[in-house]
């Protein structure tokens, strides 16, 4: 998803913890294969390429899309998942991993004059199908990260206290046992964090 993901799980059995954390990592990779607009083979890219046609979608894409449209309604369009063309015009046309750390967005950003176009997206709940207006494409951006982080926390919470740091977007389950908590650190997205050492009896945060 173009950023660093960190997952903490507090439990005694290190082998089980290792297996669960690998499964959590797989969940992020699976979500990226479905929801990334930077991957031309992702399900989202295939949907964007079929604007003007009804398209059947997976459970994951349906869940994120319906959440995004709900947020668009709640914010009266201030959050709008249909503004991909405007984002690309503003210079955000490739993943952060392909952008220079010193790159700036252009000053002459296009003024978006197609407000509330999210209202034109049609859903067929019985078939779990989506119809995008011709020329309209979706970008889930941070909402896909947050949705996936919550799914990972829901998955791990059944096993113990957990925390997901999706590049600064924190999603937490139950808190660890008092006395084992460590510091939460915030770092610059394009700079390597300073090396720190922390000892504890079990993994925590």
Summarize the structure.
The chain has 205 residues and is α+β, with helices and mostly antiparallel strands.
Describe the protein in words.
This protein is α+β, with helices and mostly antiparallel strands. Strands 1-5-6 form a 3-stranded antiparallel beta sheet, with helices on one face. Strands 2-4-3 form a 3-stranded antiparallel beta sheet, with no helix packed on it. Residues 195-205 have low confidence and may be disordered. It is built from 5 helices and 6 strands. It has helices spanning 14-35, 43-48, 59-74, 84-89, 141-157; strands spanning 5-9, 54-56, 122-124, 129-131, 162-166, 169-172. Helix 1 runs antiparallel to helix 5 (141-157).
Q: What layout of secondary structure does this protein have?
A:
Layout: E1 5-9, H1 14-35, H2 43-48, E2 54-56, H3 59-74, H4 84-89, E3 122-124, E4 129-131, H5 141-157, E5 162-166, E6 169-172
Antiparallel strand pairs: 1-5, 2-4, 3-4, 5-6
Helix pairs in contact: 1-5
Strand order of the largest sheet: 1-5-6
Work out the helicity level.
25-40%
- Spans with pLDDT under 50 lasting ≥5 residues? 195-205
Report strand %: 5-15%
Number of strands: 6
Give me the Rg, rounded.
19 Å
Number of helices: 5
Largest sheet: 3 strands, antiparallel
Helix-strand pattern, N to C?
EHHEHHEEHEE
Distance between the ends: 23 Å
Global mean pLDDT: 79
Overall morphology:
elongated
Output the structural class. Answer: alpha+beta
